[in-house]
Hints:
The complex is a heterodimer of chains A (538) and B (577). By secondary structure, chain A is of the alpha+beta class. Chain A has helices at 2-12, 26-35, 85-107, 114-122, 133-138, 252-262, 299-316, 330-338, 363-374, 410-426, 465-470; strands at residues 41-48, 54-60, 73-78, 124-128, 171-175, 181-183, 191-193, 204-208, 267-273, 342-345, 353-354, 361-362, 378-386, 390-397, 432-442, 447-456, 477-481, 486-489, 493-495, 504-513, 519-526, 530-537. Chain A has a 6-stranded mixed β-sheet, sandwiched between helices. A 4-stranded antiparallel β-sheet of chain A has the order 8-5-14-13. In chain A, strands 15-16-20-18 form a 4-stranded antiparallel β-sheet, with no helix packed on it. In chain A, strand 6 (181-183) and strand 7 form a beta hairpin. In chain A, helix 1 (2-12) crosses helix 9 and helix 7 runs antiparallel to helix 10 (410-426). Chain B is α+β, with helices and mostly antiparallel strands and 577 residues long. Chain B folds into 3 domains: 35-150 and 247-370 and 428-449, Zn peptidases (Aminopeptidase); 166-243 and 382-420, no CATH class; 454-576, Immunoglobulins (Immunoglobulin-like), CATH 2.60.40.10. Chain B has helices spanning 2-5, 9-16, 41-54, 104-119, 124-132, 143-151, 274-285, 316-332, 341-345, 352-359, 385-395, 430-449, 486-491, and strands at residues 59-66, 72-78, 91-96, 134-138, 190-194, 202-204, 212-214, 223-228, 289-298, 301-304, 337-340, 363-370, 401-409, 413-420, 454-463, 469-477, 497-502, 507-514, 523-525, 533-536, 544-553, 556-563, 570-576. In chain B, strands 1-2-4-3-9-12-10-11 form an 8-stranded mixed β-sheet, with helices on both faces. The chains are: A alpha+beta (538), B alpha+beta (577). Chains A and B meet through helix 6 of A and loops of B.
Amino acid sequence: xxxxxLVLAGALAAAIPPAATPPQDPAAELAKIAARSDxxxxxxxxxxxxxxxxxxxxxxxAPGDTPPSDRPAILILAGLHGHHPLGTxxxxxxxxxxxxxxxxxxxxxxxxxDETRALLASHVFHVIPVVNPDGQLMGRIGNAKAxxxxxxxxxxxxxxxxxDGDGKxxxxxxxxxxxxxxxxxxxxxxxxKADTKKGERGTHRMELEAAxxxxxxxxxxxxxxxxxxxxxxxxxxxxxxxxxGAWPVSEPSTKAVADFVFAxxxxxxxxxxxxxxxxxGKPKKGSPRGxxxxxxxxxxxxxxYETVGKLYREHTGRSGEVADRHDGSAWSWLNFQVGIxxxxxxxxxxxxxxxxxxxxxxxxxxxLVHCLEVGQGFVDWHTYEHPELGExxxxxxxxxxxxxxxxxxxxxELFAAHHAFLLDAIDRGPAVHIREFTAEKLxxxxxxxxxxxxxxxxxxxxxxxxANRTRRxxxxxxxxxxxxxxxxxxxxxxxTGNLAANGGKEELEWxxxxxxxxxxxxxxxxxxxxxxxxxxxR
Amino acid sequence: MMRxxxxxxxxxVAASLVPDLDAQxxxxxxxxxxxxxxxxxxxxxxxxxxLQQAWPRHxxxxxxxxxxxxxxxxxxxxxxPDTGPAADKPAFWLDANVxxxxxxxxxxxxxxxxxxxxxxxxxxxxxxxLDRVVFYVLPTVNPDGRAAWFRxxxxxxxxxxxxxxxxxxxxxxxxxxxxxxxDGDGExxxxxKKVPMGEGQWRESKEFPGVMERVRGEEQGDYxxxxxxxxxxxxxxxxxxxxxxxxxxxxxxxxxxxxxHLQGGAGEYPLSHPETRAISDFILRHPNIAGVQSFHNAGGxxxxxxxxxxxxxxxxxxxxxxxxxGGDGEFMLPFYRYMVIHSDLYPVAGGFVNxxxxxxxxxxxxxxxxxxxxxxxxxxxxxxxxxxxxxxDLLLFGDDQVAxxxxxxxxxxxxxxxxxxxMTGRVPPTWLLEESLHRNAAFVAHHANExxxxxxxxxxxxxxxxxxxxxxxxxxxxRMIPSRTALAGDKKMGRPDRLTISGNGLEILGGGEPxxxxxxxxxxxxxxxxxxxxxxxxxxxxKSEREIRWLVSGxxxxxxxxxxxxxxxxxxxxxxx
Lengths: 538, 577
């Protein structure tokens, strides 16, 4: 088996160039993009991290008929998990593509890329590339908050750390008859749990590279990773896991995002480029139960998530089964509590399968092959004199951001595919119209019966089932202006039911009177998508 | 108006120099407050300043933040500085008035401070409390709501919310269709319209003119009730559908928080209001808080969680303490019932006392202060509607009602406006107020007095085989409330209590809980960490003792130290001869 692995590794060598360089300074990159955007991109500070660093939002909008605050708005979040700089890079890449696209339309007069300018004149994008600046600056998963995971009154004092000075935190293994692990007989660089049902018996212990820094008899038990912003949102938050925060939205980063979201009622869709994913796998279905927060997508919204997921896989060529996580994640909060469709992906991950047929390798084996090829992410086991354990071995997979294992050449294509997906996905939405507005004379009385048919021609319902449930958004509203006439039967204003996608409709009826020449006007409005207006004169 | 009531401090100090006549004590008050009337926000602040000025060593006043409209959230810290630093004493958090209309709790909170301080040095039991514990007293969680309730025309129930505007009717406009004081009499009352006999569901009482009764069975009515005073301000065909708020700050706390569509009034996320966030910041900075009371105003209840049935039950050990204190409360507060929120009242997600217990492990109650049963001295039952009217008529001289007046309504045409005043139904009349404040304040003092008091009760050294020694330390909690609630232990909240032994030349070989008094060697050893530091996840239970035994090598003096978040730290010494 070892030889198979090596052969396969050789075959893939040409395909996987060395790993990409991590982003160094997203704030500077953002400032550069804004500076060359000719006013298209404006930035503002929406809050400060636990450490005190500014959290910036970039707003992208071109001049248009309606002010940006009344247009459909799209939110893009990234940089929540501190080890996921790729999402941040993708968010910045969207901005660059918008700016470049709009600049191209300017230069060429009639515009080779008028689509970009038209999109930015009718929509507004709010992009928060680094929700958790602490994580990226300090190399932590979470924010700068000091935690006392072992409840000894001291914080962050016993974290896994680099003992042998190779600049990496890896694993420790040592022989111990009580251990649960064995060295994989097929691939001695990998460890696996002994399968006691098959008569195997553990021979080793394995722990993260750590020493008992605080002298309490435990190693690496008070890690310095801060509060995880990507688990601190308010949907199905884990209450007593200190790493997810003392309560939902307890952290400055999550609060800044939440306050921003609740201050922008024109948001219609969101994308989260971070560690969570609801686009690769099949979305889980949930059913309302009493006061319990939903643990899956409402049945009526499943099609939307499935369709957009398929769109994503087609654009990016990605596949794989990834469970959608709900506990405190940003996308689940946006979907289930804010009530806007929210799509999340980790953009890229270390392959879980390489090769085909008999040569195929999966799981850790695939990861090992990948790491060897990109020249990062794995350290050969080597002996080390541990202060408490004596002679042990250090090595195995490195504790690091998976993003840094991405082949450099893969980025451009992947980002272009994600941008194309974004444009495709936001093309979906409700479109409400007044299909008919007619008047019929009632006998010789001078009274008229007015009738109207309101219809949704869009490919999303006027409200998703979830939005309908959260009651944060109004349904389409209509108002009849009488132009000096009088209403004999009916209401002069109201809200429609939830007009279904692809032809959901509602009929209205009134009886009115008025002098000859009276103009009746019917207005239909769905914030912030837009509406319709029709007149009739009798 | 206020100034004339609270006498100048200098004069009071001078007066107190007059030789004290025992018979006169507790009648010559240092701070003179009329506890038979309610006080608005500005008046509460003035009383707080007076208390602080009268007893500057024991009472300090500080702001924990600002409300939505910018009012300071003043708290009083009350303690005896001569008996140790506040941070090392068990502390009691007392607040009130989270619902802006539920005002009398604010007065009760300050009454407690006033009563304790007026009696300090004269009543031994008062000194016992003040010497041992700290009180943090926030008389109004919702200063804006309180100010508006007194200042503006309101009902007994309006201004419950904080003043942060909300779009209740989802029309893009905020708070644009509130109640309207149509007749300008300073009250929001009811609207009624006379209709032909048989077309209405209501009629006016024959015995008590002005009082409306719903018709029953075959009876015929000649009135339609049209809701609270108001018009359709925003022209959407509905009346009073978007008033101030609506948020409910008592649905905004973290534990079991649910979003607005599952729990009305929840707010955008836990602690989304400046008021709730300021309070949580303060409470988290004070892990010594071991008791909580949050006064509300209607129902005659002593409430504890859980707020939701899904939560399950609280641990048995904590329930026993709750039941003891709740039972004492029922005795001290006639006609109050000790109840569980979700099963005896209604489900609440994100309630304050749910968070302080379920999230922080602090034994917490909410008293609902006014009860109609309080109207009579001996009420085995609620008064009937007729008796209630008679009571209002004879004892309140009918002043609970505004007489009906004709009014030309833009939508309903000719109607009448009148009915209950805002002071009717949720706050006691002046002559019952002071008693209510005292009983509730006394219950808080009792609750505070039962916060944990742990002492090192005994240290014993025994010979162990091999020239070693056992060192036995007995901790005793003299009060009802454990130093760590069972829930705090179960959920690993905060830090466990610690009992430490140290001594030069001593080696601590092991330590733990002795299991058998006749077999000193049977000890459940602590598994992890330094055996000299014993971690007591469940602290010391109420009214009980707990023993720790160390196996020690060597001889000489040693020091025992007990440290707890919610009880005063202790030290003692011993020697192995």
